[in-house]
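Input/output pair, single chain:
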Amino acid sequence: MPTFPRQRPDGEGLALAVLVVAVTLVSVLPIARLLLEAVAPGGRFDLSNLGSVLAAASTWRATWHSLVTSLAGTAISLVLGTAFALAVALTDIRAKAALVFAFLLPLMIPPQVTALSWAQLAGPSSPMLITLGLAPPLGAPNPLYSAEGIILLLGIQHAPLVFLAVRAGLRGLPREMIEAARACGAGRLFVLCTIVLPMMTPALVAGAALAFVSAIGNFGIPALLGIPAGYTVLPALIYQRLASFGPSIISDVAVLSILVGGLAFLGFALQSLLIGKRDFRSVGAPSAALRYRLGKARLPVELAAWGVIVVILVVPLVALVATSLVSAYGVPLNEKTMTLGNYAEVLFRQDATVRAFRNSFFLAAGASLLLMLLAVPFAAMIVWRGGRLLKALAMLAEVPYALPGIVLGIAAILIFIRPLPILEVSLYNTIWIIFFAYLARFLTLSLRPVVGAVQQLDRGLDEAARMTGAGYLFRLRTVLFPLLAPAAAAGAVLTFMTSFNELTVSALLWSAGNETLGVVVFNLDDGGYTVLASAVAVVTVAAILAIMGVTALFGSRLPRGVLPWTD
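Output:
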């Protein structure tokens, strides 16, 4: 019988202690520090600053703008996401995998790129419209630079969140009641309105809550479209205050950050209120998904679905590519103005953009790798060991991702604005403060797929290794990591894609020499270098498409639902 190297009996306890410390640092400490600064600026209890910020007219004007754009954007997301989920889950339309891939792509594209691409689609300076002879007269305003433009793009950006929630609910829908209603002569529309949608209430509410919270914390779209129009939401107000006054106003922006977090909390609280006191349990086990035969209506439904994809995805990206290929913004795209010089400039000659590519890759890859290593033992403990402590740690790990990124950014500044105790090393104005924020924000992205995989995993191999004397670290290396590698890799891909183009956190934390791709796109467009910003944006979209395409090829080897675009 083979012998196993023995570990100390407290190996698992040591791992648990490391997890407690890690989650405390990335989840508990930032929120606690933010709350402390709001009520005790500079370490002295004083509510006058809190009162002055809450009494300012600009605070409540930005709050009202945030609520209006988020609620209206959520309504668009709800309609769009639900319609696509019903079409994909309940009908026999063709090419579903490609349709799902295309519909989820706006969620993967950074919001600042979404805003930039749509801005190139309208207005008198749009190279695509000028080329087609459809540009409005010079001096006409760009309709996207408005509250309506922000609402439209927030709705499109977060519609995939509603889609994912509703599609998951439809997959777990028992067919008995539906088949009984059909047997009694009920039509499809009657069944949809009286059975399917009422039973989908939890999924609809959950999707709407996710869309609302994401819209409240969205910085890229309201910043690129709202700031030029003088329409300020709370995240943009925080950015403007910090950019104008620096750390001296940190107590004020801490209060504003708590206000943003409070609005996000209200979204989740409303979700609990709407479904908490109602019983949505159904009789019967989930079965194969329904496939309503559309007959002659199938082609029109397919054309309508792909038409929406063309409008919300393809046309804006074509406009973005057109802008990236012209020699100057506002000229038509033809053989005389077409150039690849913008790409050569941002990829090889501009120090800031070259550095941003390098920084973003380092931050995304480093965070993905470290969180993947942390997620495997964390997930195994949550599922197999259980207990109140681990359940609490799992909930705390969700907090930084559930809160708007602007809140986490301010919290990171508060933690690291002074040198670390004992070490006397400052992380403020370094790339490491962004790295810390990424670890905190994206821990749950790496954790969720692995938790799902552990729940489907037979613990027998781990128990067998334990019985033969294998220590915890040895089992972790030779049993858990090999078995959970596909799910862990999927979580790492999600983390990498999300952090590679992140803007909301890094917009507050970047410093000279530590730019990220999201910051570069925002700064180039804000500085009037629209063609260069478009070139960077096109490269980032190409990178996202490449990653999603490669993972789609290996989707069959991953647990179902781990990567939504491969299912």
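The CA atoms of residues 41 and 251 lie 6 Å apart. The chain has two domains: 1-46+341-567, 59-282+298-339.
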